[in-house]
Each structure stands twice: as C-alpha cells, then as structure tokens.
Design goal:
Blueprint: E1 2-3, E2 10-18, E3 27-28, H1 39-50, E4 60-62, H2 72-82, H3 87-100, E5 110-122, E6 125-135, E7 139-147, E8 150-158, E9 166-171, E10 180-185, H4 194-201, E11 203-205, H5 209-231, H6 236-252, E12 255-257, H7 258-266, H8 269-286, E13 293-295, H9 298-304, E14 311-314, E15 318-321, E16 329-333, E17 340-344
Antiparallel strand pairs: 1-5, 2-3, 2-5, 4-10, 4-11, 5-6, 6-9, 7-8, 9-10, 12-13, 14-15, 16-17
Length: 350
C-alpha cells in the first residue's frame, strides 16, 4: 500500500515538456519549481500522482549490469535525497535523460512532472520519495458558463487527473539495491512503451513475495499447458482441472511449500519429477531462483488469476468452462464419424 496523507508532504514540484526527437519536437525546461501554496491544486495533484499507485504491490530496483552508480536515474535521485537544493538541477537532468530515450516514432511527447515528497507511506514504512510522472494524452472537456443571463458552451483540451499515463515513485529505501521503485505505465502492452521501464528507468524486479508468487504461477501455467502434454497422455480437460487446482492452492494458502504443493496437487510421482526438472529449466532460462517456501502474495495471485483460463475450446463451435469436478466429463471418439466428443454429466441446468 502506497499512500501520501497530507498535501504538505508534496514539497517540491517542477514541470518540463519532453517531446519526441524523431518528430523534431522540442525539450522545454522550467528553471524553477512551481508555487504549491494553493492547497486545492495540491490535493488534485496528489490524487493524480499517488492514487494509481495505491494498490500497486509490485516493486523494482534501479539497476545497472556493471555498477548501480552508472544508472542515471539512480545518480539523479541520490543527489536529490542527499541535498534537496539540487532538486531543480537534477529534475532538468532527468528530463534530458528522458528526451534522449524518446526516439521511437510512436512515443508521444508530453509534460514531465518531477516531485519530491517529504513523507510517503509504503507498506507501513515512512520514507522520502521522488516522483517522476508523464502525461501524454489530452482529453476534450466541455465548459458551461453563464454570460448575459444565458448559458454558453465551449470546449478545452486538458489532462484527466484520473488517468496517469506513466509514473514512477522512487523511495529512499534499500539504496544499496537500487532503491525501492514502483512503476505505472498505461501503455506497457505496446512495444514502443518499454522505453519507460527498460531504457529510461532501467529497472529489474525486486526479489520479494510478490515476485516469487508470480514466478511460481507462471511456472505452473507453463508446465501444465506445454510440458505436461509433451511427456504424458493427458486430456485438455485434465489440464484445466490441474490449472484450477493449482490456482486454488495459491488462493487458499498463506504460504507456499513445494513438497506440499506437488504431493497435494500434482500427486503422481513421475509428474512431480517432471515438474521439478522443468522448475530447474525455468530458473535457468529466466535467471531467477525459486525458493521451496515463501509467503504467498494475494495481489500477485489476483493479477495472475486471469491467465489461468479454465476454457475447453472445441474447434470453433464450442467453449466449455470447467470450474470443478472433471470426473463428470467423459471423452471419447465416435466410430462412425471419427470425431472426438465429450460427455458432460449434470443434475440440472443453471
């Protein structure tokens, strides 16, 4: 949980305009921070900046393969944390750094907000934070106003404070690992958007319970959907049943235990051995280490639940949703037509 409770905790804010170099758009830099004496504006800004992070339990660390001090954002943030007088100077460096990475033709220019928060609550721990936010999309708003005792209409383009396009909060915690970092990217599914996380910020996933839970869920899904059918005779209905049981384990348990999971969910010794071999391959390919036990992260389970699809697709004619007992499903082959079939046993239609 990330939270800023007081508008006064937003102590410094500056805005720069960062265009796209490939479109010959300019970089326009402010020379001084904004005046934040208007509390109404401050409250709106807090909602715009912080609300998207309030339920974000996924964290990163700033990273560099050779030396963390060579990560530009780490260097700029460290100088601000060490001496707030350098805030404006370093905010300009951050804007220039983003401008240098805004070269993909589909990257949108926009306003870049650099903020310093004196107090920010992150998972119950109070810390200073630096915010880096970017607005890329404008929306059209109608303006209704009274003139000469008659209502008039006009319009104006502006920023929707309920839709943050890109954001990053760097907390003054875990400096040796690259600070604890939270990221928002509304365009993260687009290839051109990776510049925000991979090129501009340069981060890697923080090794925590959220990360471990997400990795194990991905491991289970990949094993069941691919490796299991390669090594064993298994129907798609049985695969879905195992997916459902795996998902239920993570939803119902507070702690993951590898031996318990394999014995209670996978059951068959040969399949358990295959799963553990696949786990080693998964670790090598992803360059991660998956512990045998850890506390399960509920937010990670909720996020990954949508990829555990319990849908049996039969050609293009039928989609069967399987949520429970696969003993009530019988598969066979019709000798006359040579086509496969499923029998579904039930007591009544819902």
């Amino acid at each position: 949980m990330i939270h800023v409770s007081d508008v006064n905790d937003l102590q410094l804010l500056t805005i720069h305009k960062v265009g796209n170099q490939s479109k010959d758009e300019p970089l326009a830099l402010s020379q001084t921070p904004l005046d934040l004496t208007d509390e109404s504006i401050g409250s709106l800004l807090l909602n715009y900046f912080i609300q998207p992070f309030s339920n974000n339990a996924e964290y990163y660390h700033l990273y560099h393969s050779a030396d963390i001090n060579l990560n530009e954002i780490f260097s700029f943030a460290s100088q601000i944390f060490d001496d707030k007088i350098k805030f404006q100077e370093q905010s300009i460096n951050i804007a220039k750094h983003l401008f240098n990475h805004s070269t993909h033709p589909k990257i949108k220019g926009g306003e870049l907000y650099i903020a310093y928060f004196d107090k920010c609550l992150v998972d119950g721990e109070e810390a200073e934070a630096i915010g880096i936010f970017k607005s890329e999309n404008k929306e059209t708003y109608l303006k209704v106003y009274l003139q000469n005792e008659t209502y008039e209409l006009n319009y104006e383009d502006g920023i929707n404070i309920n839709k943050l396009d890109k954001g990053c909060l760097i907390f003054n915690i875990e400096k040796e690992e690259g600070y604890r970092v939270s990221i928002i990217d509304a365009q993260s599914k687009q290839n051109e958007a990776v510049y925000w996380k991979d090129d501009f910020l340069q981060v890697k996933r923080r090794e925590d319970n959220y990360h471990q839970t997400e990795n194990y869920l991905d491991l289970c899904r990949t094993f069941i959907n691919t490796k299991l059918s390669e090594n064993f005779e298994v129907s798609r209905a049985d695969q879905i049943d195992l997916l459902n049981k795996s998902a239920s384990y993570f939803k119902e348990k507070e702690q993951f235990d590898l031996d318990e999971f394999t014995e209670d969910i996978i059951l068959q010794p040969a399949v358990i051995e295959s799963f553990k071999e696949f786990k080693q391959q998964f670790e090598n390919n992803r360059e991660v280490t998956l512990p045998d036990s850890f506390d399960i992260s509920t937010p990670a389970v909720k996020k990954q639940a949508k990829v555990f699809k319990s849908i049996l697709k039969l050609d293009k004619n039928f989609h069967v949703y399987i949520h429970g007992n696969t003993d009530l499903i019988e598969k066979g082959t019709d000798e006359v037509s040579g086509m496969n079939y499923y029998k579904l046993f039930f007591k009544e239609e819902a």
